Amino acid sequence: MNTTGPHTLSPARTTATAARVLRQLRHDPRTIALLLVVPVLMITLLRYVFDGSPQTFDSIGASLLGIFPLITMFLVTSIATLRERTSGTLERLLAMPLGKGDLIAGYALAFGAVAVAQSVLATALSVWVLGLDVTGSPWLLLLVALLDALLGTALGLFVSAFAASEFQAVQFMPAVIFPQLLLCGLFTPRDQMAPVLERISDVLPMSYAVDGMNQVLHHTGVTTDFVRDVLVVAGSALLVLCLGAATLRRRTA
Amino acid sequence: MMNYARDRTEPPREPAPAVEARALTVVRGDRTVLRGLGFTVEPGRITGLLGPSGCGKSTLMRAVVGTQAKVTGTLDVLGHPAGHPALRPRVGYVTQAPSVYTDLTVRQNLDYFAAVLRPGRRHRDARGEAVTRAIDDVDLASHTDALAGTLSGGQRSRVSLAVALLGTPELLVLDEPTVGLDPVLRRDLWHLFHTLAAERGTTILVSSHVMDEAERCHRLLLMREGEILADDTPAALRARTGSDTVEAAFLHLVDEASATATRQEATR
Ligand SMILES: Nc1ncnc2c1ncn2[C@@H]1O[C@H](COP(=O)(O)OP(=O)(O)OP(=O)(O)O)[C@@H](O)[C@H]1O
Ligand SMILES: [Mg+2]
């Protein structure tokens, strides 16, 4: 039986969904504050932890500017969509003329907007106050951060399908994010890892997210590596969003 | 678009049923929850779905709106197979547990669902009117700006009902919409259901535990353990069982069915 419905996006329904998600967030000012302030605090902390070695701050700081949006959007999205599933609103929406793509794009749009605000704050503070030394344009940093946020949203949406409770959902954070964090080159350059691990890190999207940040850090213009990084992160985000759409079932047991 | 011209060329006989089920079977987990049901729901009328807890009322309603998996047999809704995309704007569904966003206000909830039903800036005014009307219909005008999460249980389930009223659906599927409401409100809602059926020609399929509500339905489907015990008008049911109330008629039929089941067990 064909119950998947039309796959065409309706811009009006997508923006209505995004506006609804943001409105929900607005009723929760503490979450907004945490989303915006925590990255700023962490980056500041990092700056003074590496007070004696500004170079280390530059490289780890830039990487973190890409990792924050990924992790926070992962968490926020996985909980938000899990709630949507358990509260019955997802069932209701899917019984209405709403495309799955509209719902997913709505979430991506809303959390993308939050990520822009978050990244603008953290990047501006790092570059202009904390003296993060970026060779390239801070706009490119922002672009990578935004794509990272979309990847986080996509991963969160996807794993929420496999979580039956909020407890399980937050446990997916260490399961999905930590291995990528360890292997992305933040702690050791990837070419110094055991060959097997390097191979694995080659297929993990966060490796490209962090590499993209470092490309901007060290090069003035847009390098081919940077283009590759951006394409890989964007492509993975899109792929995982499609997988996430496939986990939304109009008919459930 | 699909072509449904065939429906139009047929001579108008009896109005086609709003819902028609044949050999409808649903499996949930490893239990067969609905066992080969056959029934029809007349258009423009209120059909009550009654039966003990766990007999499969919600499952039946989920099958009708197309959210239930593992449905076999035939189930046609408004001339389409249940769950057909064309039905989504035409069918309103209220789940048993209120499904609204607790972190949005009443109006914000309705605004969003209205935008899903009729998207676009063009319809903004029409949407605003539909939202206000739905809020008035469920008597929540004094709480439009309250968060759904801070409402009482009955108020929240009325928000959920209001969402289903938004798009002027042709078929309303209401899963125990009056549970936890006081007698005055229940009377008002039933009055609303009758108005919808009479003035807008809305077909209503409503489940209930409260037997005096059964008397207010045009037709009743009595269920027990995934089967339909009776499909009749309240008056005919009372007459057939020689009872004064639908409640007594229902108990009579349930006892009769249990006795038959026990006898069959014994002879096996
Ligand atoms: N998600 C599920 N997975 C497996 N079985 C289920 C599920 N939901 C319900 N059931 C079973 O299906 C049967 C019918 O459930 P249903 O919710 O349709 O009953 P109901 O008539 O609506 O009851 P109530 O009046 O209490 O709401 C029950 O025996 C129940 O245990
Ligand atoms: Mg039920």
UniProtKB/TrEMBL annotation, chain A:
Keyword Repeat: no
Every ABC transmembrane type-2 domain range: 26-251
Membrane topology per record: Multi-pass membrane protein
Matches recorded under Pfam families: ABC2_membrane (PF01061)
GO BP terms, alphabetized: response to antibiotic
Keywords: Antibiotic resistance, Cell membrane, Membrane, Transmembrane, Transmembrane helix, Transport
Presence of keyword Transmembrane: yes
Transmembrane segments: 32-50, 62-82, 103-127, 139-162, 169-188, 230-248
Subcellular locations according to the entry: Cell membrane
Molecular function terms, GO-annotated: ABC-type transporter activity
GO cellular component, one term: ATP-binding cassette (ABC) transporter complex
PANTHER family given in the database record: MEMBRANE COMPONENT OF ABC TRANSPORTER YHHJ-RELATED (PTHR30294), TRANSPORT PERMEASE PROTEIN (PTHR30294:SF38)
Record-stated family: Belongs to the ABC-2 integral membrane protein family.
Name of the protein: Transport permease protein
The species this protein was found in: Streptomyces fulvorobeus
Automatic annotation (TrEMBL), chain B:
InterPro entries to which the protein is assigned, alphabetical: AAA+_ATPase, ABC_transporter-like_ATP-bd, ABC_transporter-like_CS, P-loop_NTPase
Signal peptide: none
GO-annotated molecular function: ATP binding; ATP hydrolysis activity
Keywords attached to this entry: ATP-binding, Nucleotide-binding
Gene3D superfamilies assigned: P-loop containing nucleotide triphosphate hydrolases
ABC transporter domain ranges (all copies): 19-250
Record-given protein name: ABC-2 type transport system ATP-binding protein
Native source organism of the sequence: Streptomyces fulvorobeus
